[in-house]
Write a structure and sequence with these properties.
The chain has 216 residues and is α/β, with parallel strands linked by helices. The protein is built from six helices and eight strands; from the N terminus they run ααβββαααβββαββ. α3 crosses α5. The longest helix has 16 residues. 14% of the residues are buried.
């Protein structure tokens, strides 16, 4: 998407918020504090309220746009300019493009670049993926899935057909933990299908990416 297309597609705050909501919560709005999904929408304030903990939040809560007073469309343009400028873009240039002060432009560039340090797209996986779990360490049970008191440590791995692998040790195998690991390790739109075994925890992938079960 080029800059002109971006400006045409995200020319109102409503469109921007709708896009961010879909990207952030593909399976429905979730409370960033307690992770509950029973959420009320306060349309007049562009806010949500959690029915469980009564926390009020917006689509930008906890993001680099948290508590921003700048229109989200300007944030999206700034992100595009910073990411697309191979030789970098100065705060002065950003200020001219966005019609904001130098101080605001510097703040935007700093927040965006800092976020990019922690989100390297090139390291993420895509294509046909296989996810499986195993248990290592300790003497524990010899057969079947170890119980909650087992000394064994769960390890989950993602294999990208063609080579690359990501794996992590987890304190427990819960759906939300599996989803957190997998969603951080892959590029959602680049995943053709994820194959797993029939372990119930993988049901969290439904609606996130194409998911099929098979004997791994």
């Amino acid at each position: 998407m080029n800059l002109i297309e971006l400006q045409q597609q995200f020319n109102t705050e409503k469109k921007c918020r709708k896009y961010l909501e879909k990207q952030r919560w593909p399976n429905g709005v979730e409370c960033p504090r307690c992770k509950a999904t029973t959420i009320s929408r306060l349309k007049e304030y562009d806010r949500f309220e959690c029915s469980k903990c009564e926390y009020q939040f917006t689509v930008t809560t906890g993001t680099i746009m948290h508590r921003t007073h700048l229109p989200i469309c300007k944030w999206l343009i700034a992100i595009h300019l910073v990411c697309e400028s191979k030789k970098g873009i100065s705060a002065s240039q950003l200020a001219r493009h966005l019609a904001v002060t130098y101080k605001t432009a510097w703040y935007l560039a700093h927040r965006i670049r800092n976020a990019m340090k922690h989100t390297n797209i090139e390291d993420k996986l895509g294509g046909i993926l296989e996810v499986d779990e195993t248990y290592i360490g300790g003497k524990g049970d010899k057969t079947g899935r170890p119980g909650p008191d087992s000394p064994k440590t769960p390890v989950v791995g993602i294999v990208e057909r063609g080579g690359r692998v990501r794996c992590v040790a987890m304190p427990r195998l819960k759906g939300k933990d599996l989803f957190s690991f997998i969603s951080e390790a892959v590029i959602q739109d680049a995943v053709e299908v994820i194959y797993t075994d029939q372990f119930g925890g993988y049901q969290v992938l439904k609606g996130f990416v194409p998911h099929e079960t098979m004997a791994l």
